[in-house]
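Notes from the 1:1 (GR / supervisor)

We went over the backlog. Supervisor wanted to see one worked example end to end before approving the batch request, so GR pasted a single chain during the call. The sequence is below; no edits were made to it. Supervisor asked that the structure be written out right there so they could see what the output format looks like.
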Amino acid sequence: MLKKTISKEVFDFLKKLEKNNNRDWFNTHKMEFKVLETEMKSIFNTLAEQFKADDDIDRVKVFRIYRDVRFSKNKTPYKINFSSSMSRSGPQLRGGYYTHIQPNNASFIAAGFWQPEKSDLYRIRKELELDATEFRTIINQKSFKDTWGELSGEELKLAPKGFNKNHENIDLIKKKQFIFTRKFTDDEVLDVNFLETVRTSFKAIRPYFDLMSDILTTDLNGESILN
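Structure output shown during the call:
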């Protein structure tokens, strides 16, 4: 069992940062931030190390607190969350895991395909056009839905070029992202069992990842495209 806990000070700091999102305040409180950043890196790395027993994890990334404001209307310089991602070993294993810690009941975890490459997106759509039975069976299983809820992600308003707008699976074919998310309250994040809940939730996504990996490593005839 993962018993490492996130301290309340993490939320306290992020709440203060949200109200004082400027460089002067941040620089004044940078030592406090560094202590909490070290704590969160340890949390994320602990989760990753334990999860390697459940999946083949290739890369762990802890995101920086600094925002890229070059192309954003929001010019506040700092994020008000701590976050991390885990990538599966490619190209044979596809999909990624994301953990987002933010106060005011805004924490969540996510798993799936955020920005699939153009060729991967087309391959997924062609598979769903051919037959979406197994896909729907997996994502509609009660145990799966109890953990992850409904498939989410951005989608097109119209059918993608080359696909029939009246196709029985057009609701899936229009998707640009194939993501599942699970939200958490602040109390749930601070609970001693939070990391174990995250780990169990990520384990539950495996049937979906196994199917998508199979799709993205084969052609429509089921032949491997890997060298």
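Supervisor's comment: The longest helix spans residues 30-51.
Batch request approved.
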